Amino acid sequence: MSEHKGQALSWQIVNGAIELTLHREPCNEIGSLMLGELENFVRALPGLMNDAHALILHSSQAAGFSAGADLRELYSRSQGMEKAEAARGVRDFLERIHAVMNTIDALPLTTIGAVHGVTFGGGFELALVCDILIADRMARFCFPELRLGLIPGFGGIPRLKRDLGNAVVRDLLLTGRSFNVMKAQQIGLVSQIAAEGEALRVARATASQVGKFDRATTAAAKKFVKPIPYEELKQEIDIFCDLYARPAVEEGLRRFVENEGPQPYLP
Amino acid sequence: MPTTEHTLDEILNLAAAHFRVPREKLTPDDDFFKTLGIDSLQALDLLTRLEHHFRIELPDYELQGVSDFRTLAERIQSRL
After folding, report:
1. Domain B4-77: assigned CATH number
2. Cβ of A147 under 8 Å from any chain B Cβ?
3. Which residues, 6+ apart, have CB-to-CB distance to A214 below 8 Å?
4. Total number of domains in chain A
5. Which of A10, A44, A119, A179 is deepest in the core (most CB within 10 A)?
6. Mind listing the pLDDT tens digit for each residue in A234-262?
7. For chain B, percent helix, then strand, then coil, each to nearest 5?
8. B51 — contact with chain A (CB < 8 Å)?
9. Over the stretch B18-53, which tens digit does the pLDDT of each residue have?
């Protein structure tokens, strides 16, 4: 199916590039709905790739690319559930989202993330699977998980370690601070900066450029330069699940979910 | 280096223009969440615009508990 419109995301092929558009209110939180539709997309990919040389991931939500994991769903699902059952549910979710991320990460075509606004947590991790990141001038990135007593769980740390210097990874992870697009380009995360509202246009131009090259050569080059850190990705799930079992995490989630003040996203 | 008052004035001008609030309605000691009617995500948007405008990097944890323009100006001034 070369075109699909779901509740959380849609895809279509435009000028030889698959465009995956995230559009779940309010800011593409990744919960069971988004995960299920991402899995559908991954299942459709083999057919889509016959007609495409690139994949563009972007969001049509004004607030940004994605605010990350759906913390409200994570919190509410754990309520009234045995600890062990809740932990099994979290591990299952993580294994499924890792399978999606790993598949996109290793695709034999060029993947381009066009991000704007909030690109936080799991949304940041989704952006990290892309080969090339193009960011709107107003994009902002953050790994806030330590504020909740967790680590990023959708593959963020192994992919950051793969792509950036370790001192930078420590800074971003251990402070949990958000940072702007200038910093993102300075540390090597973002390839190109687009004017406000222009990231998708720039991504399309880039997709058009990469479409000039032989697909087999692109696939071979990508496989050579972009290893998938499978072992560390598995370790990340284990560490996340160990941390999730602690009472402090439930308390952190509760504080976030019940916070009705204006500052839940500020550290 | 600009004075804190000058920095404060630039912040108020930028906030008024972006959030479409009459400039004369903004004063240094206003709670910007209330005066501008913004939430934390919009506050991060304001922070990004201020970082670009002043060509600085201001970690968001320095804004924890900050809600008035004057203190915001002081935080920015310390990075100029």
Report:
1. 1.10.1200.10
2. no
3. none
4. 1
5. A119
6. 999 999 999 998 888 888 888 888 776 55
7. 65, 0, 35
8. yes
9. 999 999 999 999 999 999 988 888 888 999 999 999
